[in-house]
Amino acid sequence: MLDNFKPTLNFLLRFIIIYGVGSLLYSLYIAHHDPKPDGVTELVANQMAWTMNVFGQQVELYEVETDPYVGVMYNETQSVSIFEGCNGLAVMILFAAFVFAFRGTNNRAVIWFIPLGFLFIHLFNILRLALLIVINYYYTNAFHFYHKFVFTGIIYAFVLLLWIWWVQIQKKQTLDADLSTDDH
Prior knowledge:
mainly alpha
């Protein structure tokens, strides 16, 4: 009976190990930079600020020596902090753990799918941060709701769609492999 669940248990074990190791490495990376913001958070903040400035939204970044965030001043009046949790790496680790744990017969697809997924998550995250800054400026009372619930739900739904796409790619590759084996 346990043989029926073996593929599922293998998937879960691989996922937990990959996600656990990725999360541990990420926490060590963050701890190494404490109390300053890490490089990825700074990069994301800079790219978000550049994007907003390109679209005519006045944004300036600042750092406080003893705090692990990048401050964002919007329209010279409103300030928001970008912490390490805002850089998208935790979501990317979750995404990659699933893809590696659910890889199919052809691992070559991983070479393009994970970087593409990371790019999509990163671009979405920059858009999310920019929108949160604007929301904080115009609708300060709604900021927490959008930050905690709306955009969290959207990013995880987006990752779920990427996973579904990955499963479809694996399903197609498995079918193609089965068909090519039947031809010989």
